[in-house]
Amino acid sequence: MPASDKPLDFLWFIPSSGDGAYLGSDLRARPGDPDYFRQIARAADRLGYSGVLIPTSVACEESFILAADLAAHTERLKFLVAVRPGTASPAYYARLASTLDRLSRGRLLLNIVVGGNAQELAGDGIFLPHDERYTHAREFFDVFNSLLETGEAHLDGTHIRAHHAKLGLPPFQKPRPPLYFGSSSDAAHDFAGDYVEKYLTWGEPPALVAEKIEAVRRAARAKGREVSFGIRLHFILRETDEEAWAAADRLISHLSDETISQAQEVQKNQSDSVGQERMRRLHEGRRDRLEVSPNLWAGVGLVRSGAGTALVGSPATVAARLREYQEIGIDTVIASGYPHLEEAYTVAELLFPEIGLKPAVPPLRPSFGAAQVFGGGGHGGNMKTGT
Question: Entry's NCBIfam families (predicted)?
Fold first, then answer.
């Protein structure tokens, strides 16, 4: 079966730092709230998303704790939760991961986050140069993986010392929850080839994504390993291409040039992330350079750090763009849209039928067999067609 004919694994996003209808504006903004996160998670659970990404930063709720709460309010949904080497010991993270995997009965995915904003890293006590952070991460995951897979680990490393470490309770998944990871530097590609099950890229044009996939695949195969690939994208889906592009324009209609300038200054000067710089260079902060590839729009990245691109268009158009990514090796999508509750429904209702995905919960029968159309919710109920 061609790669583009296989159904994508489709995850959604929990906006744990807050949500809104307009970027760069407090108009119709939604502060982060646990009840709202549960709404999104329950919607994703029944609409057919396989999981949700829970982000990590000083502006976000702590991802392990939030995932534990959401797991109690969902049935099938998996949780892609961050492990940040250097913020705690590998033994402590192993206990967190094992417990959450056991409590959720195997619904834990682990997202390795090595880099990010330099000021935030310093606040967490991490002062290592860019490439040395990956040397540290290797030692960290040597201990972490050994504990989850065997219950014990021992290492006298340059950065990590763990003497006869023990893990009393194994995770639900065997041998451990899978490791996801995204970064764009050469050091990151080598790390991915050695350690992770799934490499993630932010939404760059397909040719650039293909180069990263090939680099990671080559690094993995040199060690006798295989890695699968995913992409992190925003989505602006509407019934027609014209409506979708109008929605993209509305999303940044309250975004001022001053706010763009401030955001771009932070992205350029406070991060040593290669991936962040690649995102920034797609548009250079300019409103007239936002369609960086057919239907790939960089307007989100004018103000948002991290993933800054969206696929924009009708269901047929966006499905065609996704097939282009599938053909170069992408099998997983981590998606989002603003606001996240409404757009979870929009993407599922418009795009999922186009790409062969179905709701996790089959709909209840609306009638005893006669076809019906929505009648506006009046006292008479829906209308039977043909009558």
Answer: alk_sulf_monoox (TIGR03565), PRK00719.1 (NF001939)
CB 80 within 8 A of CB 54: yes
Measured between alpha carbons, how far is 22 from 25 in angstroms, rounded to an integer?
6
Give dist(CA 67, CA 73) in Å, integer: 10
The whole-number average pLDDT for the span 144-167 is 97
- Residue-wise pLDDT tens digits, 259-279: 999 999 888 877 778 888 898
Residue 164: count other Cβ atoms within 10 Å of its Cβ.
7
For residue 382, pLDDT beyond 80: no
DSSP 37: H
Q: What is the largest CA-CA distance in the chain?
A: 78
Residues 6+ apart with CB under 8 A from 49: 10, 11, 12, 77, 335, 344, 348, 360
To the nearest 5 percent, what fractions of the chain are helix, strand and coil? Answer: 40, 20, 40
For the record, the structure tokens of 229 come out as 């690939």
Q: Which overall architecture, per CATH, does domain 3-384 show? A: Alpha-Beta Barrel (3.20)
Give the confidence band of 2 by pLDDT, cuts at 50, 70, 90: low
Please name which of 363, 381, 364, 382 lies closest in space to residue 372, comparing C-alpha atoms. 382
pLDDT above 60 (res 1): no
What pLDDT shows up at residue 351? 98
**Plot region of 125 (φ>0 → left; ψ -120 to 50 → alpha; else → beta):** left
**Spans of all domains in the chain:** 3-384
Model confidence, pTM: 0.95
Neighbours of 385 (CB within 10 A): 9
Instruction: Write down the number of H helices and E strands in the chain.
Output: 13, 17
